[in-house]
Amino acid sequence: MTIVEYLSTLSDNPYFGAGFGLFGLGAGAALLRKSFQASLILMRRHYMITLEVPCRDKSYQWLLQWMTEKGARQTQHLSVETSFEQKETGHVKTKYDFIPSVGTHFFKYQSTWIRVERTREQHTLDLHMGVPWETVTLTAFGRDKSLYFNILEEARQMALKQHEGKTLMYVGLGSEWRQFGQPRRKRPIQSVVLDEGISDRILTDCQEFISNPSWYTERGIPYRRGYLLYGPPGCGKSSYITALAGELGFSISVLNLSERGLSDDRLNHLLSVAPQQTIILLEDIDAAFVSREDTPQQKSAYEGLNRVTFSGLLNCLDGVASTEARIVFMTTNYLERLDPALIRPGRVDLKEYIGYCSAYQIELMFRRFYPGSDSALQAKLFAENIKSFDKKVSPAQIQGFFMFYKHEDPEVVLKNCEMIWKL
Ligand SMILES: Nc1ncnc2c1ncn2[C@@H]1O[C@H](COP(=O)(O)OP(=O)(O)OP(=O)(O)O)[C@@H](O)[C@H]1O
């Protein structure tokens, strides 16, 4: 029997025919599935756009907030984020924000449906923050990438708007900057009364610096500026820096150089990843290198811990260079304790003494507290009275004194000037 004859007898066999038919069906289904998958991949590649935002990216928080506003209304699967909000009256209000939970959500942006997938890796931690690693992936039909650009920009604007009129504070935690406390209402710069011309000098210098990056790049000078405010306590150094940050629309990033475990490397890293548009504040810079080892107990407490060295700090300050305007403010009560290397030009470009009140400051503070019609005359009298005691007085003392007599007439205040030193 030839092979051809053998095959023809097989084709007459009903069992073989059925088996062959089944095989054909299976192969056909597999082929269909494969081509479906291939066309899906092809469609994804050419007709869909995807955006992946990992939790380490700056826009991640903005995007979550944006989704809270836009998307959370369209999905039923939410997770809660509780925060505390301080009202201007000082009341603290609890605020619940619902954000789309981990999983898949769909919502419409303009006329496009977007699939949002929020995933959380159970086994991977974001080592900086110690939280599970998360990713948000947006997928939409189309090829226009500007869709995502618009979403991110809208999210950024929304985040900025939330902080409009507020000053943010950051502190260095580990190798990250973390927001510290609630955003504070901006303090008007005029509310910090410094001696004649000082505030204008600092403000103009900062503004000129910020608006002139090309001056620095053209001359190959690092784009940074250092300021030192020195003087006795309670005269407004910290208050002025806070008010200045508000005026410039900057945040404040506070670095505590005496902090345990802050090494040269960490300091360097923190300075290089500082938030944008921020004032880096090194308070009580004189205390950073002396007070730590005053007593044997302190010495042993700090043994084995990393810490910032003086040369490390100088290197870090010199290395603070970026395309961003980098403003560093230092404060101290004791200028004479500072090493000249720390405050040489280039590290500190402008030094200002913020001292006890002059007659000019006393008058101005009085007029701000008692803005009545006789204010100018009374303020002059008040300043003369205070000066006649020939004693030092700080703005904090004057503020405390005014607060004590806040329900009294200016006349009573004028009569009780000596109480300033007794409160
Ligand atoms: N020049 C000023 N104008 C208005 N208020 C002031 C002024 N100086 C100080 N105050 C008030 O006194 C308080 C303490 O001021 P602040 O902390 O800014 O002083 P400081 O010079 O930074 O002191 P320290 O050296 O102890 O840090 C604040 O409540 C502030 O409002």
From TrEMBL:
<dbReference type="InterPro" id="IPR014851">
    <property type="entry name" value="BCS1_N"/>
</dbReference>
<dbReference type="GO" id="GO:0016887">
    <property type="term" value="F:ATP hydrolysis activity"/>
</dbReference>
<dbReference type="Pfam" id="PF00004">
    <property type="entry name" value="AAA"/>
</dbReference>
<feature type="domain" description="BCS1 N-terminal">
    <location>
        <begin position="23"/>
        <end position="192"/>
    </location>
</feature>
<dbReference type="Pfam" id="PF08740">
    <property type="entry name" value="BCS1_N"/>
</dbReference>
<keyword id="KW-0067">ATP-binding</keyword>
<dbReference type="GO" id="GO:0005743">
    <property type="term" value="C:mitochondrial inner membrane"/>
</dbReference>
<dbReference type="InterPro" id="IPR057495">
    <property type="entry name" value="AAA_lid_BCS1"/>
</dbReference>
<dbReference type="GO" id="GO:0034551">
    <property type="term" value="P:mitochondrial respiratory chain complex III assembly"/>
</dbReference>
<keyword id="KW-0472">Membrane</keyword>
<protein>
    <recommendedName>
        <fullName>Mitochondrial chaperone BCS1</fullName>
    </recommendedName>
</protein>
<dbReference type="GO" id="GO:0005524">
    <property type="term" value="F:ATP binding"/>
</dbReference>
<comment type="similarity">
    <text>Belongs to the AAA ATPase family. BCS1 subfamily.</text>
</comment>
<dbReference type="InterPro" id="IPR027417">
    <property type="entry name" value="P-loop_NTPase"/>
</dbReference>
<dbReference type="InterPro" id="IPR003960">
    <property type="entry name" value="ATPase_AAA_CS"/>
</dbReference>
<keyword id="KW-0812">Transmembrane</keyword>
<keyword id="KW-0999">Mitochondrion inner membrane</keyword>
<dbReference type="Pfam" id="PF25426">
    <property type="entry name" value="AAA_lid_BCS1"/>
</dbReference>
<dbReference type="InterPro" id="IPR050747">
    <property type="entry name" value="Mitochondrial_chaperone_BCS1"/>
</dbReference>
<feature type="transmembrane region" description="Helical">
    <location>
        <begin position="15"/>
        <end position="36"/>
    </location>
</feature>
<keyword id="KW-0496">Mitochondrion</keyword>
<dbReference type="InterPro" id="IPR003593">
    <property type="entry name" value="AAA+_ATPase"/>
</dbReference>
<keyword id="KW-0378">Hydrolase</keyword>
<dbReference type="InterPro" id="IPR003959">
    <property type="entry name" value="ATPase_AAA_core"/>
</dbReference>
<keyword id="KW-1133">Transmembrane helix</keyword>
<feature type="domain" description="AAA+ ATPase">
    <location>
        <begin position="223"/>
        <end position="358"/>
    </location>
</feature>
<keyword id="KW-0547">Nucleotide-binding</keyword>
